[in-house]
Structures are given as structure tokens and as C-alpha cells.
Design a protein that fits this description.
Shape of chain A: elongated
Distance between the termini of chain A: 76 Å
Strand content of chain A: 25-35%
Strand order of the largest sheet of chain A: 12-17-16-15-14-13
CATH superfamily of one domain in chain B: P-loop containing nucleotide triphosphate hydrolases
Structural class of chain B: alpha/beta
Structural class of chain A: alpha+beta
Oligomer: heterodimer
CATH class of one domain in chain B: Alpha Beta
Largest sheet of chain B: 9 strands, mixed
Order of helices and strands of chain B: EHEEHEHEHEEEEE
Helix content of chain B: 10-25%
Largest interface: A-B, 50 and 55 residues
């Protein structure tokens, strides 16, 4: 199966138009035509033409930039569809499929009927296709690309040598020798050809004629972690939805277990009778695949769903999965699991990133001497260090009235009059010039630990470059 | 220096307690360290105050602490209730910004009983809830003897199952133990004490 206009067919399926239409691909600084529809071909355009030339040929030309990833996805979709004809379907380049129909053609009433069925279905879908059926993969490729429709397999010998999937310079070389068709090539002696053009030519020839095997490798379908359930009668009770979810979870978790995967994010889509659909998203703090543990976590999301006139289809999909190899279980492993469940449950309410833990960081700046990371995406680490006592609570610096480089004997802070009983310091911390920080605009800071006679133990700093005293923290 | 703990401390498990006063952060950290295991600290996200692991280190291993930042107090209460009920943590600290009503206090109490977890509410002065098991006031005390001291006065101002009282305590960072110390000489907090 060759799709000569894959890219333009993909776009034109979404927006049918009979006007000339091209897909332009940018290579370097020029835009070239990547794919074009028959109307554009009739206007005299061809593949590989410059877009500027094409626009002068055809002023009302419609164009769109090429999108190769979407083309690939489109071809992958076609591949899945083609599995209806036979189970062995592989890709052939970027714009073709190869099907091994041995043993399945009779199910469709023979090869001719199979090809006719394919052609009819693709024509209905507005996809241009060229089909070739032959005993070998090479011959089928040649027929699809170079032969007019419905050429029998023995027409192969009349095809040009380019139909053998050869490099362009070999084709030119063969044409210079006067070997224009495959028939000419088979009639000529092999040894001089191999000497002149290398082993590739004979390999391709043998593959087309069947002397060398060339298997079709079917693509493995990526595992789909989703299940769905349709009800004969709409349901609306929370308990019913939970029961249905439970029924969906079991096969989904079995699928995950078979692939050694665990779900990290699950999405439950509830389709209502009036075609509206609601989604319940569940983000898990750790990858898991036990239905009994996941099900209670859905409780809160399902309770919030508005069932309307009833729900008649539900679909459960593991949107994000992670490898979760089987682990030996022991008494110690149980505790982090329970904690992960708790984090998930809390995370569905306040957001998973709002549950955090401290991680050590390498900085002298008090605000940057630690990191706060979401607990679900980090591991607990040790290695905190404080060369000097640090306050247990930091707040944004609060100015106090004082002057001079020595800590004040008495000061007012938060409407309290405090008397300094002991001052420990100064500890000078310079700003990190490589990281711009507005809070450190005032320059150096001399930190003092002030034990007040009233009891409060405060962390004060003085900025010598921009005189002023501030309270920034409180010790335990 | 005697080494026994003050009565009613460690806090009774499966109950929710309250603490107020300027040293309530230190009190909570010590309570978490004495309780062992993991602790969850629930704080509203708009509060500018920041806990620091470096300051907590003499009292409590920062790796054992989880933080939850919530949008409002309703979320805080929901998170605390869920965490108390679960029972996989040993202490849940909740920073309260408006007074709890009886229903909220009672729900927390029931959740703590269900999970066997200790709850501790950090309350501003005078915002206590009637449902609390004990209410403490923690104030730092100036210690003339030692520079890096954590001398504090802990006072039980409400106790459902016992008497009230006050103790001077000191946390030993080396041995990770709490000591009750007698108030030496004149009460250090009183005005005009000579050095």
C-alpha cells in the first residue's frame, strides 16, 4: 500500500477542497513542495518545486507547512486500520504500509476482491492509495509505485529499474548501460553487474524476484492502558459509579501488572446521556496498580460529579504510567506505601505539588540554604548542615529603629519593647552576586543573634552598606 | 538538672492538643522529635513565615517532616483530619489562623482517636477550642548561663485529664533529650535582673 499524497490527504480530510493545495516543507532557507493534491498537479506543479515558483504558476494556491510528526501519527492510524485485513502489518518507509496477506486473502474472496475492498474503503475516506500485490515484498513495492493499476505480477519485468528500490546513482548508471527495465537486468550476466554496482543491486533484484527472503515485520502495538464500560441503562448513584469503576479497575490493573507498569495518573471519563462528559482525574503520589488501593482514592472525585440524567458510558485510562517492577515485600515496605496513599488523598484536595519536604541546598543565604520540593516527586534526603545556630522561623525582614554597627541595647519590635541581654555575632553574609535577588539589594548583612531579657531569641541583621537594622527570624 | 519529662508530655497519643505563645514552633518541633516517626506540618500558603530545616536540625531531623501548604483554613482542617485519621504519621501540626468552632475541634479529636495519631494546633493567644485535650503556653526564657540555650517555660493552661502546672525545660541538642530544669535564682524573665 503506497499513499502518494499522505500529507495533503491528511489535511484535506479535515477541510475538503478542490482547489490546488500543497504542503510546503522548509529545507534550509527555501520552501519546497512536500506534497500536493491532484488539482495542484494539473496546474503544473510537481513535488520538490520551490514554493515561490509554484505561487507564480498558480496564484490562488493554498498551502500549509509540513507537520511530519502528525503525518507519522496518521500513518500509524492507517496501520491499525489495516489490521482488519491481515494480522501482519508493517511500515514501508514514511508513506507506505506492507501487509503479509498470505493465508488471509481467501477470507475476503481472493486477492482481487481484497484489493478492491481496500481501494473502495480508502476512496470513501478520501485517501489516495496505490496498491500492489505480489509474491514478494520487493515486487509488491515495484507494482505499487511504478505499475498502472491492476497490473499482474508478471508485469514486473517490464517496469523500469528504479522500481527495484535502488539508489539514484545506480539507476542512472544502469540507464547509461542501456539496462532500462527489470527484464533487461535479469537477462544480463550477474557477475559483471555485481562488480560494477556492488552487491546491493543484486540483492534488490533477488528480493523482487523471490530468490532472497524479505520478511514483513509487524509493528508491535503499544500497550493501551484504558478500559471502558457501556451500560444498557443510565446510572446515577454514586455507589453504582464506584462499582462500575471497580469493575474497570480490575482489568486495567491486570494489564498494568502484565507490563510491569504502575499508574501515576488516572482519568475516569463519565459520559452522560446528553453526550456531555465529565472527567475525574486522580494523580497518585507513587506508581501503583492495586485495585483495592486505587478505588477508595476515586471516592472524593466521583462524589463531586453531576450525573445529570444519568451516565451511560464510563472509561478509565491510565494517562501516565511508570515502570513498577515487582518488589520483594517485607514489613518495612508497608509504611512508605501507606504514606504515599495519604499524600495522594491529600493531594487530590490541595494539589499534589503543595505537599512538600525539605531538601538540602548549598548556599549561605538563609532563605536559599534549603529547597522545598514536592514530596511526591522527591526522596527524603539527609545532609542538612548548619555551621552556626539558625532560626527555626524566618520571616520577611522587619525594620527596627536602631543606628550604628553595634546591636541596640533596647529596641521595639512588633509593639514590644525588648532589652538586649546577650548579642552573639556578627556573622557576615555577602549576597550571591551570581544570582540576582531583590531582597539582597541592600548589600552585605551582619547577622546577630540577640537574646533578649524578655526571653525572645531573635535573629537581627545590620546592613553596613545601607545602614539599617532588621529582624529576620526567631530561634527556638 | 533533673532529666525527667514534664507530666503530660509526650503529648497523649490519639488526641488533639493546642499550644500558644512565642515558643510554640519550638514546642511543636520538640513534640515531633519526642513522638518519633514522621510528622506533617499543615500551614496556609499565604503565611509569609517560613520554617527552616537548619533551625529545626538541633530539635528534629528535617527529613522526617512533610509540609502541606493549603489555600485556606478549611483546606487545612480537611488535610489535618485526613492525616490524623490515616495513622501513618506520628504527629500532625496544624497552624490555626481563626478560632475553631466546637464542631471542627470535635471532628479533629475524633479523627485523631480513629487513627491513633497525635494532633497539635498552633493557635494564636486566646483562640483555643474547647475540644482540645491539653493547651500549653510556651515562652522562651533568657538563660544567663549558656549562649545556645533553648530554655523555655512550658505551662499547661488547660487540661482535660489532670492538673495544670508550669515547668522550665531545656532541650539538649547533643543527646536529643528534653530536661526539666528548676528555675535557678530569680526568675530570669522578670524585669531588672542583674546579670
Amino acid at each position: 500500500m503506497w499513499f502518494p499524497r499522505l500529507a495533503s490527504d491528511r489535511v484535506l480530510r479535515a477541510r475538503p477542497s478542490d482547489a490546488p493545495f500543497v504542503i510546503a516543507a522548509r529545507t534550509g532557507s527555501t520552501e519546497l513542495i512536500h506534497c500536493l493534491n491532484p488539482a495542484a498537479e494539473q496546474a503544473g506543479l510537481h513535488r520538490g518545486m520551490r514554493m515561490a515558483d509554484a505561487r507564480s504558476f498558480c496564484p490562488d494556491l493554498l498551502s500549509q507547512p509540513a507537520d511530519l510528526p502528525r503525518d507519522t501519527r496518521f500513518l500509524r492510524g492507517l496501520r491499525r486500520w489495516a489490521e482488519r485485513f491481515c494480522p501482519w502489518v508493517g511500515f514501508e518507509g514514511t508513506d507506505g504500509l506492507v501487509l503479509d496477506i498470505t493465508g488471509s486473502a481467501h477470507l475476503w474472496g481472493g486477492e482481487a476482491a481484497l484489493l478492491a475492498d481496500m481501494r473502495a474503503r480508502l476512496a470513501r475516506a478520501n485517501i489516495d492509495v496505490r496498491l500492489g500485490a505480489a509474491g514478494t515484498r520487493g515486487a509488491a513495492w515495484a507494482l505499487a509505485h511504478f505499475a498502472p493499476q491492476d497490473t499482474a505480477e508478471d508485469g514486473l519485468l517490464a517496469l523500469p529499474v528504479a522500481a527495484l528500490r535502488l539508489a539514484p546513482e545506480i539507476v542512472t548508471g544502469l540507464q547509461r548501460l542501456g539496462l532500462r527495465s527489470i527484464g533487461d537486468l535479469t537477462a544480463s550476466p550477474r557477475a559483471p553487474l555485481a562488480r560494477r554496482f556492488g552487491p546491493d543491486l543484486l540483492l534488490r533484484l533477488d528480493q523482487a524476484l523471490g530468490a532472497q527472503p524479505e520478511p514483513v515485520t509487524p509493528e508491535a502495538e503499544p500497550p493501551q492502558f484504558s478500559t471502558r464500560l457501556t451500560f444498557p441503562e443510565p446510572i446515577g448513584l454514586e455507589a453504582d459509579v464506584m462499582a462500575a469503576t471497580e469493575r474497570l479497575l480490575a482489568p486495567l490493573c491486570a494489564k498494568l501488572a502484565a507490563q510491569d507498569m504502575g499508574a501515576r495518573r488516572l482519568c475516569l471519563t463519565l459520559r452522560r446521556v446528553d453526550q456531555a462528559s465529565q472527567q475525574v482525574e486522580l494523580r497518585l503520589a507513587a506508581a501503583m496498580r492495586e485495585p483495592t488501593r486505587i478505588l477508595p482514592l476515586f471516592q472524593r472525585g466521583v462524589a463531586e460529579v453531576d450525573a445529570g440524567f444519568g451516565i451511560d458510558q464510563i472509561r478509565l485510562e491510565a494517562v501516565q504510567t511508570e515502570p513498577l517492577p515487582v518488589q520483594q515485600i517485607g514489613p518495612q515496605v508497608a509504611s512508605p506505601d501507606r504514606l504515599a496513599d495519604l499524600i495522594t488523598r491529600i493531594g487530590t484536595r490541595i494539589g499534589l505539588e503543595n505537599i512538600q519536604r525539605f531538601l538540602p541546598a548549598d548556599s549561605h543565604i538563609p532563605e536559599r540554604s534549603f529547597l522545598i520540593a514536592p514530596a511526591a516527586f522527591s526522596e527524603a534526603q539527609g545532609g542538612f548542615h548548619a555551621p552556626r545556630p539558625r532560626p527555626i522561623r524566618l520571616f520577611p525582614p522587619e525594620p527596627i529603629h536602631a543606628s550604628g554597627a553595634q546591636p541596640p541595647a533596647r529596641f521595639r519590635w512588633r509593639r514590644m519593647t525588648l532589652t538586649t541581654a546577650r548579642a552573639t555575632g556578627p556573622e557576615r553574609i555577602t549576597p550571591e552576586w551570581w544570582l540576582p535577588d531583590d531582597n539582597w539589594r541592600s548589600g552585605l548583612r551582619d547577622y546577630w543573634k540577640i537574646d533578649t531579657r524578655e526571653g525572645r531569641r531573635l535573629w537581627l541583621f545590620y546592613t553596613p552598606q545601607n545602614p539599617g537594622w532588621f529582624v529576620q527570624g526567631e530561634f527556638a | 538538672m533533673s532529666s525527667q519529662l514534664p507530666p503530660f508530655f509526650p503529648l497523649r497519643a490519639g488526641r488533639v492538643h493546642e499550644v500558644c505563645g512565642p515558643a510554640s514552633t519550638g514546642f511543636s518541633a520538640i513534640a515531633a522529635a519526642v513522638a518519633g516517626g514522621r510528622a506533617l506540618w499543615v500551614q496556609e500558603a499565604w503565611l509569609a513565615d517560613m520554617l527552616t530545616p537548619a533551625g529545626m536540625m538541633p530539635l528534629l531531623d528535617p527529613a522526617k517532616l512533610l509540609l502541606a501548604r493549603t489555600q485556606n483554613q478549611t483546606d487545612s482542617l480537611a488535610v489535618a483530619e485526613e492525616a490524623l485519621k490515616d495513622g501513618s504519621l506520628s504527629l500532625v501540626v496544624l497552624e490555626v489562623t481563626r478560632p475553631l468552632d466546637l464542631r471542627e475541634g470535635r471532628r479533629l479529636q475524633l479523627a485523631a482517636r480513629a487513627g491513633g495519631t497525635t494532633g497539635l494546633c498552633l493557635i494564636p493567644e486566646g483562640m483555643g477550642s474547647n475540644a482540645a485535650e491539653t493547651r500549653w503556653r510556651a515562652t522562651p526564657i533568657f538563660d544567663p548561663a549558656q549562649g545556645d540555650s533553648t530554655l523555655m517555660r512550658w505551662e499547661i493552661i488547660k487540661n482535660k485529664s489532670g492538673t495544670i502546672g508550669a515547668w522550665h525545660v531545656h532541650w539538649d541538642a547533643q543527646t536529643h533529650r528534653l530536661h526539666v530544669v528548676p528555675p535557678v535564682g530569680e526568675r530570669p524573665g522578670s524585669a531588672g535582673t542583674p546579670e
